[in-house]
Design goal:
- The chain has 227 residues and is of the alpha+beta class.
- The protein folds into two domains: 10-94 and 209-218, Glutaredoxin; 100-205, Glutathione S-transferase Yfyf (Class Pi), Chain A, domain 2, CATH 1.20.1050.10.
- Helices cover 50% and strands 8% of the residues.
- It has a four-stranded mixed β-sheet with strand order 2-1-3-4.
- Strand 3 and strand 4 form a beta hairpin.
- The radius of gyration is 18 Å and the shape is globular.
Length: 227
């Protein structure tokens, strides 16, 4: 069920334009994917990434980023994609197991994706995209790669023999797969077949494909067109 302009239970914020390298990777993809997995209707409120945010938006998201979520049923406003995934997961056991250990495992891996893996992926993207060619980035890269490889090796050991992190597919896999996509093509995943196979399982799901297509369809061709 793709995003719809009609009123829906959840409203998610996103951008109506980003540079080409960011298309398909903006973090509103995460709650979109979760909604698609369980057929939960959602609508999008698109912001112009090339313009200053409306001042009122900082009350929803203190840094003016996306996504933020408004749950029309409860009236709750939530920011940070991990918190949003947890909120959506609470609505349906297909995304968050109801048995205590399954729930604890899924939540642990949700936090692990964003606290133990994403910081390295984010920094790697920073030095290779935004600081490419700068001396400090070249000096930082070897130690960053070494540390990232250690994290990925431990992740591969943890995933080996499992289909999904918490037994069943869950919000933990949405979190981890979207983080791993950020370093796909760097060679770091390709050197670890267990992680590549895990990522391919995740992004081959129809719900991911629907969420990705919906996000890409929302982008205007240029900042001027998004104004």
């Amino acid at each position: 069920m793709s995003a719809t302009p009609q009123p829906a239970q959840l409203e998610i914020t996103g951008f109506n334009w980003v540079p080409d390298f960011a298309k398909g990777f903006v973090r509103d993809l995460r709650p979109r994917w979760a909604c698609e997995e369980i057929g939960l209707p959602y609508s999008m409120r698109l912001l112009n990434a090339a313009a200053p945010r409306p001042e009122a938006y900082y009350k929803e998201q203190p840094w003016g980023q996306v996504p933020a979520l408004v749950d029309q049923d409860s009236g709750l406003t939530i920011f940070e994609s991990g918190a949003i995934l947890l909120h959506i997961g609470e609505k349906d056991e297909r995304l968050l197991p109801r048995d205590p250990q399954g729930r604890a495992t899924a939540i642990s891996w949700l936090f692990a994706a964003y606290n133990s893996v994403e910081p390295m992926a984010f920094e790697l993207g920073n030095i290779e995209i935004f600081a490419a060619g700068e001396q400090w980035a070249e000096l930082r890269r070897p130690s960053l790669i070494e540390f990232t490889c250690k994290r990925l090796d431990r992740l591969a050991i943890a995933i080996d023999g499992r289909e999904w992190l918490a037994g069943q597919f869950s919000i933990a896999d949405i979190a981890m797969a979207t983080v791993l996509r950020d370093i796909e093509g760097s060679g770091l995943l390709e050197e670890r077949p267990v992680l590549m196979a895990y990522l391919e399982r995740a992004i081959s799901r129809p719900a991911f494909k629907a969420a990705l297509a919906a996000q890409l369809a929302d982008f205007r061709p240029s900042p001027a067109a998004a104004a």
